[in-house]
Write a structure and sequence with these properties.
Length: 731
């Protein structure tokens, strides 16, 4: 309110803080901001809001978990709180307890359905976003109990036939459990299904337990009720879990009475439970006879009757016409197919970079994910996502997903250009004004050329990609700004020559400005490598400056600034063969490792393959990557446990290994691993959209002779210049 500015609120806050023995929060924030470049926007409010929610849960975790370690907790808790486990994290001065060592989960679902259940590494199923979970145990009559979250070893895989299905298997002392979790279509509605099979050498009970927790921590349950037929739960009066047969025994517990696990042998049976603090646990028990397999099916409806009817053949339709990979490397093949499934799952209309922590929209992630959709031939899905963009553009032309990120406009215009290049279509009429306004925003946002300092003429200091560091004049933003203006030039070239030339001239002038700024860095650092900003030393944040080479291709593949930057990163910022981002992420990054690999591939540097293989080795058994990977546990340590930007980069990496554009020509086969050519099975990829049209590539290895490379194109115009660059094989 306007009158607030007249109140001496800063003085009041300071006085109250001192009276109660606290540091002055305003002075402290001022000190924090002094470590960043002056900026019109601090940390984006969206990230602050998300951080508050994240740590609020962590605060609840700290109040509940460590005082109740006799409960059965999710896998990450069992490991992170175990002092004998490599994932152990001390808690002494940690205000919040957060999953920092095993942030891994796998999304399951149906195409174009927004609900994305997740499964953790031990089969814990969380049907609803940020909600409660379902766990399966096996209790023998002699008291032995198989608890998957406490098993040091288990087998997990993802099956893709007919849509993603996560299978988890574990055995211990004659007890065996297998769960299969997926989302199926029943009567036109999405239903989360979990099929559990149990086998024991002695008689016992299969236990299905309702858990007030998930892969992030506590998720409250206040009330649960068992149906009169004993074949369903109602959770908090709204969500339902159906069993394929009635429960023979049923127990519930609350926070004061402890976990329901300690009540499994109770003689008294309860049909409902309630907990004022939201820590209801429940267990439905089903008889298992000695030596016989017992199967139980759980169903959790994800949609009500008002939801649109969905297709029963959704996966076949969603993947129709996609670029197929056929290669002799089973791991690469599986990771490619799993990545395609991830892209489809996370693009119900908008695109999401994850099913849980990142189930929201950013232009940055969207640009890369949509690019992967386009390059994989999923054009309609990509176009639908692009049509969600204009509603997020402000009147001044800014494509805003969160304030202070000055790369967004360039990324939007660049991906629009790629869409029109890959489809061969002219710029849609309804897109002309958003593109014009978006390009003008870039021009207007730039700083004056007349100010002192190497940031003159660049985009302002901003938060940009959070892993580059505090607010600064990031070259990442500038490279995307240039790419955006060049995209506007290209998009308007066939329809408005004057506007096209205007934006083309703007791109050239902006590029020259950045070159002058980079020259000051070269003089200061005594090497051509590009730091994150004009005022930074070379550090891990320099990963952002690789955008000049990948994916924007603003420079030649052998640009010394680009290659020296990559060399610095390879020498100083790699751990276990992968890029280690020591700022914010503090983990190994699959998608950023692949950015370096793409730069090396363009330059014809064979070391790219070591990086790609390292990323393949870091994938989970279900074919996913968390955003950042703990160097010791190799579990997730930051971000979403199923990171779709990483999936997108794997698709783009495979595609560019087979076919990529370089100027006015196509390069075929430059990234094919030499080991693939030492066997005799054909290798295929396609049809793959390119800026010249779609192409299918077939490589026929002939051990002892040169491989044969053939292609079939459906060109927008005439066939482009094509260069085959297969790697050399061993003699």
């Amino acid at each position: 309110m306007s009158w607030m500015k007249w109140l001496p609120w800063r003085y009041l806050v300071k006085r109250v803080a001192h009276r109660h023995g606290f540091l002055d929060p305003i002075a402290l924030l001022g000190k924090l901001h002094s470590f960043a470049q002056p900026s019109e926007v601090g940390e984006p409010i969206e990230l602050l809001r998300a951080g508050v929610v994240f740590h609020a849960r962590g605060l609840i975790n700290s109040r509940v978990i460590q005082h109740n370690l006799d409960w059965v907790w999710p896998y990450w808790v069992e490991r992170q709180f175990d002092p004998e486990d490599i994932a152990f994290i001390p808690r002494a001065f940690s205000i919040t307890h957060i999953n920092l060592s095993n942030r891994n989960w796998t999304a399951i679902g149906q195409p174009d359905v927004d609900e994305l259940p997740v499964v953790d590494p031990r089969g814990l199923l969380t049907p609803f976003h940020d909600g409660w979970s379902l766990d399966a145990w096996l209790l023998a009559d002699d008291g032995r109990c198989l608890l998957l979250s406490r098993c040091k070893t288990a087998r997990q895989r993802q099956e893709l036939e007919g849509g993603p299905c996560v299978v988890t298997e574990s055995e211990l002392d004659g007890l065996a459990l297998t769960s299969r979790s997926r989302v199926v279509v029943e009567n036109g509605r999405a239903v989360c299904e979990m099929v559990v099979k149990a086998r024991a050498e002695t008689s016992g009970s299969l236990v299905i337990s309702l858990r007030p927790a998930n892969p992030e921590g506590i998720s409250f349950i206040n009330k649960v009720r068992l149906s009169e037929q004993r074949d369903a739960w109602t959770v908090d009066g709204k969500q339902a879990v159906f069993f394929s047969r009635p429960a023979e025994r049923h127990h519930v517990s609350n926070y004061r009475e402890g976990d329901v696990r300690i009540h499994l042998q109770d003689k008294e049976d309860q049909s409902e439970g309630q907990c004022d603090v939201g820590m209801v646990t429940a267990a439905a028990l089903f008889r298992v006879e000695a030596g016989e397999e017992s199967e139980l099916r759980l169903r959790v409806p994800l949609q009500d009757e008002s939801a649109p009817v969905i297709r029963s053949d959704g996966w076949a339709a969603a993947l129709h016409g996609h670029a197929r990979l056929e290669c002799p490397d089973e791991n690469w093949q599986f990771l490619y197919d799993a990545a395609l499934n991830s892209l489809v799952l996370h693009s119900p209309e908008d695109v999401y970079p994850g099913p849980y922590t990142y189930k929201r929209f950013w232009f940055r992630d969207a640009a890369f994910i949509i690019h992967a959709l386009l390059c994989a031939g999923l054009t309609d899905r990509a176009e639908r996502a692009l049509y969600q963009f204009p509603a997020r553009q402000l009147k001044n032309g800014y494509f805003r997903s969160q304030e202070g990120e000055w790369d967004a406009n360039g990324e939007v215009l660049w991906i629009l250009r790629r869409f029109h290049e890959l489809t061969g279509r002219p710029l849609h009429r309804e897109w002309q004004e958003p593109v014009r306004k978006g390009a003008r925003w870039i021009e207007n946002k730039r700083l004056s050329e007349n100010i002192e300092g190497p940031h003159a003429g660049l985009l302002p200091a901003g938060f940009s990609a959070e892993h580059l560091g505090p607010n600064d004049y990031y070259y990442w933003d500038d490279f995307w700004g240039i790419a955006g203006l060049k995209a506007a030039e290209s998009l308007f070239a066939p329809i408005d020559r004057e506007t096209s030339e205007h934006f083309g001239a703007g791109a050239q002038e902006f590029s020259q400005t950045v070159d002058r700024s980079l020259a000051t860095c070269e003089q200061r650092l005594k090497r051509p490598g590009m730091p994150a900003s004009p005022y930074r030393r070379l550090d891990a944040g320099a990963i952002g400056s690789l955008a000049m080479g990948y994916p924007t291709q603003l420079c030649e593949p052998d640009d010394p600034r680009l290659l020296d930057c990559a060399e610095f990163l390879l020498e100083k910022c790699f751990v276990k063969g992968a890029f280690y981002q020591d700022m914010i992420h503090s983990g190994l990054n699959a998608y950023l490792t692949l950015h370096v690999a793409q730069v090396l591939l363009r330059a014809g540097d064979a070391r790219f393959l070591d990086l790609v293989d390292a990323v393949a080795g870091l994938a989970s058994p279900t074919g996913q990557w968390p955003e950042a990977i703990h160097p010791a546990t190799e579990g997730g340590c930051m971000g979403d446990g199923h990171h779709v930007w990483a999936s997108a980069e794997w698709v783009l990496m495979v595609r560019n290994c087979f076919v990529r554009e370089e100027g006015d020509r196509l390069i075929l086969g430059a990234g094919i691993p030499p080991r693939w050519l030492e066997q005799d099975k054909p290798i295929r990829f396609g049809p793959a959209p390119t800026s010249f049209g779609s192409v299918s590539v077939t490589i026929t290895p002939r051990p002892g002779a040169a491989p044969e490379v053939t292609w079939e194109g459906n060109w927008h115009d005439s066939e482009p210049a094509i260069e085959v660059r297969l790697p050399e094989t061993r003699a």
